[in-house]
Write a structure and sequence with these properties.
The chain has eleven helices and 13 strands. It is an alpha/beta fold. It has a single domain, classed as Metal-dependent hydrolases (TIM Barrel, Alpha-Beta Barrel). The chain has an eight-stranded parallel sheet. Helix 6 links the parallel strand 7 and strand 8.
Amino acid sequence: MTQTLTIRRPDDWHLHLRDGAMLQAVLPETARHFGRAIIMPNLVPPVVTGADASAYRDRILAALPDTMQFEPLMTLYLTENTDPADVAAAHASGLIKAVKLYPAGATTNSSSGVANFDKVRGVLETMAEIGLPLCVHGEVTDAEIDIFDREAVFIDRILDPLRRATPGLRVVMEHITTANGVDYVKSNAADLGATITTHHLIINRNHILVGGIKPHYYCLPVAKREEHRLALRAAATSGDARFFLGTDSAPHTDPNKESACGCAGCFTATNTMSLLAHVFDEDGALDQLEAFASLNGPAFYGLPVNQGTLSLTRTEHPVHVPEKIETGDGPVTVFDPGFPVHWHVTA
Ligand SMILES: NC(=O)N[C@@H](CC(=O)O)C(=O)O
Ligand SMILES: [Zn+2]
Ligand SMILES: [Zn+2]
């Protein structure tokens, strides 16, 4: 049976575009379907100042094919030396839409992140005053904390005290992976939101480890138990405006993933919208896909929804997705859900 769904053009509220040859190759994969994306600043070296963000934005727009329309929403990488005045100026000019907090050492390219939270208090207070959201990679890095507990411990030890110390600060918990994250968002007011990735709606930790290790399913925060995946699905498909799509599409070349010390990150830009339609269809929630992918994010960030629409059609034959995309840095494997997907992006 053929079935069609038309939604407002979606946005991606957490995206890694990288730079140079990788940027050139992955940008069209997102711009084909998405109107805007929050661009993660974890380049090497990171995007720290307004001047860095302006130059990176120019490189993104230069890499955008003429036939495509896409607006990069820039962010700054919070360091212990970040200048509140520079942040305020970059926000006032419209250049940046958020600041990103990486606990030092938590994930890919996070060595310049925050270790001593007292050092960023001034920036956070400025952000609360001007209404600029803080996007948070929510994992503690303490060696003695089990990697599967790092998100839950972060909420208790870092995030909740930080929010209490900075009233009015708007926070997005990025790529939540646990029921603890879902519950924490739900138990708070509208100044707290969360992004959920496509892959965390599909895989649990068994997918990574059972029957042989699957490097292309390894990302941070690492996928958790099935009960957590189900909590994420319930949140994403609920229509609750505090939950919205952030794919965390994070390209790494195959040699860097398929190695003795493989990089963290799943590349989902190519097939995210097909996968989401599949997931929402499976849960009988197709009518909530637009809220999750196209409406809730702009509402949180105080931006208008996109003009234009995206249509998806369910057909008898499954979608063909390339196994890899070629980049100037080497091949990048596209996330494979491990089941056939029948929802095609058709317009
Ligand atoms: N999610 C990941 O596993 N990796 C991201 C970093 C991040 O979002 O934590 C990356 O930049 O590769
Ligand atoms: Zn992260
Ligand atoms: Zn990310």
